[in-house]
Amino acid sequence: MTGQMALRALRQSLGWTQLQVSRETMISVRTIRRIEQGLVQPIPDFQHKLISLAYTRVPDALPDGIRRVVINPDNMRKYTGGPGPQWREWSRKRRGQWRRWKLYYDRILADSHAGRVLVVYEYRDKARTPQALLARALDAAPAIDT
């Protein structure tokens, strides 16, 4: 499905106007019109923004050809980075597992940048999410008197 068809189909299935899409994605109405007319190709960031927005509004509204993947960002960070100096001490089996997980996460990231996958991050330990850590840090910060 081309970018213009996907955008128009998603917008119409949600019942949104071009102006509503523009406000939600911070893209001009003119650009949205040009994408729908096929004059320009939408960039992957815009596609990802639009799909994420649609998923948060209506969880079942993902267009055809786009799949939803739930991953743990801690695991993704572990496998997309380098294996580290302990690599030499790993068994052959463990090295193979690490390579397979790295390929899996690399493929998900590539598909996400191409607009074929909506990545949903889900932390196992809810107390360690970035939002929870920030809230804890702000609560512990001393109050500033003015």
Task: Please give the structural blueprint.
Blueprint: H1 3-14, H2 18-25, H3 29-37, H4 44-57, E1 67-71, H5 73-80, H6 92-114, E2 117-121, H7 130-140
Parallel strand pairs: 1-2
Helix pairs in contact: 1-3
Description:
This protein has a domain at 66-146. The chain has seven helices and two strands, in the order ααααβααβα. The chain has helices spanning 3-14, 18-25, 29-37, 44-57, 73-80, 92-114, 130-140; strands spanning 67-71, 117-121. It has a two-stranded parallel ribbon with strand order 1-2. Helix 1 (3-14) crosses helix 3 (29-37). The longest helix has 23 residues, at 92-114. The chain is extended, with a radius of gyration of 20 Å.
Observed structural traits:
146 residues; 7% strand
Write a brief caption for the model.
The protein has 146 residues and is mainly alpha-helical. 58% of the residues lie in helices and 7% in strands.
Chain-averaged pLDDT: 77
Total DSSP helices: 7
Please provide the count of β strands: 2
Strand order of the largest sheet: 1-2
Order of helices and strands: HHHHEHHEH
Radius of gyration: 20 Å
Termini separation (Å)?
57 Å
Largest sheet: 2 strands, parallel
Q: Stretches where pLDDT falls below 50 for ≥5 residues? A: none
Instruction: Specify the helix fraction band.
Output: 55-70%
Beta fraction: 5-15%
Structural class: mainly alpha
